[in-house]
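Notes from hallway chat w/ T.B., transcribed later so I don't forget. T.B. wanted the structure written out for a chain they're using in a teaching module, and asked if we could keep both sequence and structure tokens in one place. Agreed to drop them here.
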Amino acid sequence: VGRPPRIRWRVTDSHLYEVYAPLTEIWTDPQTFDTAPLEREMIEILEADPQASIYLKIGLDMPSWWLLQHPDDRFESSGGWTGLQSFASDTWRRNAPDATGSVVKQLRRRPVGRYLTGLVPMAFRGGEFQLWGENTGEYDISPVARAAFAQWQHGHGHRDPVELPHPALAMPFEPGKVNAQARQRFFHFVAD
């Protein structure tokens, strides 16, 4: 995986830099975070600009060992393919902040840690929380997505649950009141 170019925010005439920190590369096993590449990059920045402030653009997508341990928490496309973690995974929502905290704590114990000034969380397609499949009209039908959608519908008083996968969610969208209601419910769930 190629690294995006390092960004220095010249427009503000500041000494602010971003370093890309994907958990897919840093979190090497359940107890180990390899921050050495981040430290090297931060040192390079500091050697060129001793007044630098650095923030991490932290990728919250899960590494391959995590996906193997949590197969039901993986995105499963309505089109038949799998991706990284599902947005509906409670395990991911617990693990991603904990892992981020571990990375930050580990960097803070190093000399470069005092120059770390912030975090920008990123995940899913493009890193900007665009859900897997969203750009192709596909959606998540993983076990955790189906369970979360059923729970959401129950919590919102829907007595006639929409099951995933559902034909009303397939593109191109078919007209009709029932289909429109199913889509509206699903999209409301995703937005929540």
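Follow-up for T.B.: The two ends are 32 Å apart (CA to CA). Might be a good example for the class.
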